[in-house]
Amino acid sequence: SVLLARAVNEMKGTYPTVEVHYAEEAGKKLVPLYEDRPLEESVLSQIEAAGCKLSEHGEISLFINVTGEEMTDVGVKGEKDREALAPFIEKIAEAVSLKKLAAVADVAYCNGGDRAFVKGLSEQISLFDLASYAGWNTSSNTLGTAIAQAVMCLHYGFSAQHNTFLADRFYEDVSYCARVRKLVCETYLPALHLNYFHADGEEGKAAQIVKKELEADLCSLLPEVGTNYSLAEVRLPWSRMFEAEIRTEKKENKA
């Protein structure tokens, strides 16, 4: 995604500028889980790899949700109340109200989004006014996805494809990775004689249960997303629970 964004920037002859905002300043000095250097170094590298430049006043405003504590995988520890979260959400909402391209890299945890953060954000803005969102796998994979989508939004606007990709990310990062994967593994698979590494094929029983739980979870947590985008396809491509291939589609307006 990052290299595709770089290719588009080169094709357009542009070098977009990116300004960076951290939820907690101490977080930029942390070495993220599974990585080998401080977060701020990876942020700069990802920006430059995408063919962009760091700036105090950028065309893209990159908001990084990070805590000041050691990073863990999502769900390892219970979510804590964070005093910095409310003003950070307000800052994102202000950027959106000013029609800035607000990109969100959610790296509070590894391997899943921060549900409390995204829920709070959804109560302040339309999530489809974001230039990007990502909160999956490693910190750098999240950064690369968020930056690349924001570059595409800068060049091509808030298209139907842009919105569908956002919906994909909310279903996968915030629902599947942060809640539904663990729920299905603990609640459903044992009774079916399945487990994390043996999930009954790409579109078997586990995939069907994941689809049902995802739809219920998103409609509850993020009604704007769940009521406007349905799941066209849910597959477990390696017949295990770590990865889910999730494809959403816009619901038809029957009114």
Q: What does this 3D model show about the protein?
A:
With 255 residues, the protein is of the alpha/beta class. 43% of the residues lie in helices and 14% in strands. The chain contains eight helices and seven strands. The strands form two sheets. Strands 2-1-3-4-5 form a five-stranded parallel β-sheet, with helices on both faces. Strand 3, helix 3 (85-97) and strand 4 (101-106) form a beta-alpha-beta unit. Helix 1 (2-12) runs parallel beside helix 5 (139-156), helix 2 runs parallel beside helix 5 and helix 6 packs across helix 7. The protein starts with a helix and ends in a 5-residue tail after the last strand.
Describe the structure concisely.
This protein is of the alpha/beta class and 255 residues long. It has 8 helices and 7 strands, in the order αβαββαβαβααααββ.
List keywords for this structure.
5-stranded parallel β-sheet, 7 strands, 255 residues, single chain, alpha/beta
Percentage of residues in helical conformation: 40-55%
Order of helices and strands: HEHEEHEHEHHHHEE
Please give the number of β-strands. Answer: 7
Structural class: alpha/beta
From the alpha carbons, calculate the radius of gyration and give it in angstroms: 18 Å
Report how far apart the termini are.
Answer: 37 Å
Strand content: 5-15%
The overall average pLDDT, rounded, is 95
3D shape: globular
* Poorly predicted residue ranges: none
- Number of helices in the DSSP assignment: 8
Q: What is the multimeric organization of the chains shown?
A: single chain
